[in-house]
Design goal:
By secondary structure, the protein is an all-alpha fold. The protein has 2 domains: 47 residues; 52 residues. Helices cover 84% and strands 0% of the residues. The protein has 3 helices and no strands. The longest helix has 42 residues. It is rod-shaped.
């Protein structure tokens, strides 16, 4: 009986050693991958997260609405006026006026 228990224990230990070796190999592989990734991402610029909160959401909404209005006006001009000079002038004017409108609507 004692020899049988010793053989089973030896088999369990052998299986545990195989599993531990596989885990160690996987951990080493993951560590090498993380080192490569850190080496690559260290050279790239960091992405800044966008501001959160009520004021930032309001600002994004205002900017999105302004851009949507400008795009809609330009589409309307393109549909109504067939001539290229009027279309180009509307595009240029909208590109010049949009920042002014955004600055005037901000509460700073």
């Amino acid at each position: 009986m004692s020899k049988e228990r010793a053989r089973r224990r030896e088999a369990r230990e052998r299986e545990a050693a195989i599993v531990a070796a596989a885990r160690a190999a996987e951990a080493e592989k993951r560590e090498r991958r993380d080192l490569r990734k850190r080496a690559l991402t260290r050279r790239t610029p960091r992405r800044r997260s966008r501001p959160t909160g009520v004021l930032a959401a309001r600002r994004r909404r205002r900017l999105g609405a302004t851009i949507a209005i400008v795009v809609a006006l330009n589409v309307l001009v393109w549909v109504i006026f067939p001539g290229w000079p009027m279309r180009a002038m509307a595009l240029i004017v909208s590109l010049l006026v949009t920042p002014v409108v955004l600055a005037m609507t901000s509460r700073r």
